[in-house]
Amino acid sequence: MKQKTDSIPSESITTEVSELENLELQLSEARDSELRTKADYQNLVRRTQEQQARMVKLASLSFVESLLEPLDHLRLAAEHISDPGLEMVVKQLWQVLQENGVQPLDIVGQKFDEKLMEVVDKEGEGDTVKKIISQGYTLNGEVIRHAKVVVV
Amino acid sequence: MTNQSKIIGIDLGTTNSAVAVMEAGSPKVIPTAEGRNTFPSIVALKNNETMVGDVAKRQMVLNSKTTVNSVKRFMGRKLKDKAVQEAIKHVSYEVAEGKEGMAVVTINGKKYTPQEISAKILSKAKADAEAYLGQPVTRAVITVPAYFDDSQRQATKQAGEIAGLTVERIVNEPTAAALAYGLDKKGSSTIAVYDLGGGTFDISVLEIGDGVFEVKATNGDTFLGGDDFDSKIIEWIVAEFKKESGKDLAKDPQALQRIKDAAEKAKIELSSAQSTDINQPFITQGDDGQPLHLTMTLTRAKLEELVDDLIKRSFEPVAKALKDAKFDASKIDDVVLVGGMTRMPKIQEEVKKYFGKEPHKGVNPDEVVAVGAAIQAGVIGGDVKDVVLLDVTPLTLGIETLGSVRTALIDRNTTIPTTKSQVFSTAADNQTQVEINVLQGERAMAADNKSLGRFVLDGIPPAPRGMPQVEVTFDIDSNGILHVKAKDKTSGKEQKISIQNSTNLTDEEVEKMKNDAEKHAEEDKLKKETVEARNQASSVAFEIEKQLKEYGDKVDEATKNEISENVTKLKELAAKDDASKEALETATQATLTSAQKMGEAMQKAQAEKATQEAGSEKPVEEADATKGTETKEAEEGEVVN
Fold it and tell me: Which of B57, B254, B268 to substitute to test the interface with A, most A CBs within 10 Å?
C-alpha cells in the first residue's frame, strides 16, 4: 500500500483534492440557492392567496375611498341645510353604500380607540369622543379611513 | 447554511421607518401589518401595552406625554448637546439626563434610553417581516445617517440587540440609497445623495471605487422637511380665506385640521397635476350665522412660489458639503434622490439644474434606503453575489499625547474594518500609569476634538521616561464601532474599552470643530509644532543634564558652567506657556551646541576605554542613548500623558 501511495505524484493528489473541495463548495452553494428559491416561491404562493382573499373583500376599496370626501361634504350640507329633499338624497346614497359593505363609524360618546380613530384635539383630560372632525368608515368590517376626533 | 434565516434591511428613520428583504434575487419592501410600505417611527407606552407606528400616531395628541416621536434625534447623544436641546423644543414628552449625561426619555417617571424606544420600532419591523416571510427573523442590517458618530452607531446597534436582532452591519443611509441604484457596479464615480424627508434634510457626497463607498462630506438641516412645505400651504390657505371672508381659520382647530389634510392632498396632487382645487364646504360660519365655504385653486406655479425659500434653504448645506468634499457640482457623476419630498417636480428640477444632470429617481424615494439596506443584507446573507461593500470611518481617530496634542491612529476615510497599532511611552520618570484619551476629529490639539472615552493603564514598572513601551491598538469593526486596547509590553498588562456612549464635547462644539478644522489649519499646525518644540526642549534639557552629572568632570569648568546655564535656561523656557516655537528651537540648539564639547570629551574617553578593553564589541550604551535621543523623539516621541 505504501508503495502504491508513493507512486502517485503528490502534485496530482493536491490538484484533485482542491478540485473536489471546489466541487463540494459549488454543490453546497447550489443546494442552498435552490432551497432559498423554493422558500421564496412558497412564500409567494401563500402571500398571493392572502392578497387575493383581501382583494375580494376590498375589491371596491379605491372607488369607495374616492367617494368618501364628497360623502362627508354632503353630510355636512345636510347638517347645515334643513331641507327634506337633501335629506332624502343623503339617505338614498347611504343605503347604496351600506348594501355594498360601507359603514360609518358611530363613535360619538364612546371611549377613544386608536384602532378606529385618530385624536386631533382634546378639550379635557378624559378620553371620550366628543366630536367627529372627519368621519371614519369601514368596508366589510375593515377600517378604510380612521375617524378624526376631538376628545373630552 | 440551508434555510438560514433571512437578513432584513431596516431604514430606521427619524419620522418614518421601512423594512425590505431580498427575495429571489431582488429587493422587496415588506408591508406593515397595516398594509403600508412605511410606518411612523412613533412609540406609545400605555400601561403595559406598547404601540408602534400608525396606531401610536393616532393617539399621540391624547397621550402626548407617553408617546415618543423622533427619538432618533436623541440616539447616543448627551442631554446638553445643542442638537438635543433644539430637538426637545419639538417634542411633547419629557427628556431627561440619564447615565453619563446621556439624553433619556421619561415616561410615567420611568427612564427609557433612546435605544430602548428604538428597539420597539425595530421589534415591529421584525414582527412585520416575520409575518411576511413566514419564518423567524434574527438578523438585520440597519441604516444610520452618515454623520452619526461612534456612540450614535453603538446606540443603534444596541437598539437592534434589545429587539432580538443580530445587527450584521450598520450602513450609512446615503450608501444604502446608492446601492439601491446599483451605483456600486459603475466603477469609480462621485455621488451626491439629496435626502429631503418628513422632518430632516441631509446631503451626502460619496466617492466610490472598486465597490468601496467613501463618505467625502455630509451636511444638512435637521429641521427642514415635508412638514415645512405643508405649513406653507396651510398658511397660504388661511391667509387667502381671511382676505376673502375676514375669518381667521387659524383660531379654529377643527377647521385647521380639515385644511391640514387638504393641504397635504393638494401637495401630493401637484406633483402630477398642474393645478388642484381645494374645496372644503361649511368650513366655518359668517358673523350672521350663514355657512362659509372654502374654495380655491392652487397651481403648481403658486406652490413653487410658496416654498421657494425652503428649496433654496436646502441648497446652502449642499454647497457646504461640496466645498468640504472639494468637489465642484459639475464633477458629481450621479445624483440620488431620497425622501418623499423629492417627488416634487420643482425639487427635481432644481437638483438637476444645480448638478447639471438628471437625478436618479426610479426607486420609490420613501423606500430607497430600506431597499439598499436589503441589498447589503443580501450580500451578507449570500443572496447577492459580486458586491463587496465596505464603509469608511468619517472622522480621524487618535489619542491625546504629551502637550495635549492629538496623535492620529486611524485617519478619516479609512476603509473599515481596520486595525492600527502604535507604540507610545511615558512622559516622566517612574510614571506607572498612562491615561488613554480616545479622540475623534480633525483638529491638531486634543481639546479641539471630541473625546469618545478614556481609560487608565496602570501597573507599568517604574522606569526612566521614554523607556516603557505601551502599545495602543485601535480596531474598528465592520459596524464602525471602535475597540481600543493599551498594553504595556514589559509587564504584559493591558486595558481596553469598546467605545460606549461617552462624549465629552457638545455637538455644537463638534460641529464647530468640523467647520473650523480648515480655518484653523495653520494655527493648529503652529500650536502642534510649538508643543513638539517644547517636548524636544525638555527632552534635550533632561538628557544633557543627565550627561552633565556623569561626564561633567571630563570638560573644563567654563564649559561645564556654560552647559549648565543653557540647560537651566532651556528648562525655564520649556516651562513657560507662551514660549514661541522659534525661541524653543534656538535655545535647544544652543544647549546642544554647548554640549558638543562634552560629547567630544565623552567620545575621547570612550575611545580610550575601548583601546584599553581591546576586543570589546559592545558599544557603550550611554553614548548610544545620547545619540538616539533626537531621532527617538522624532520617530516615536509621542508620549502618553
Answer: B254
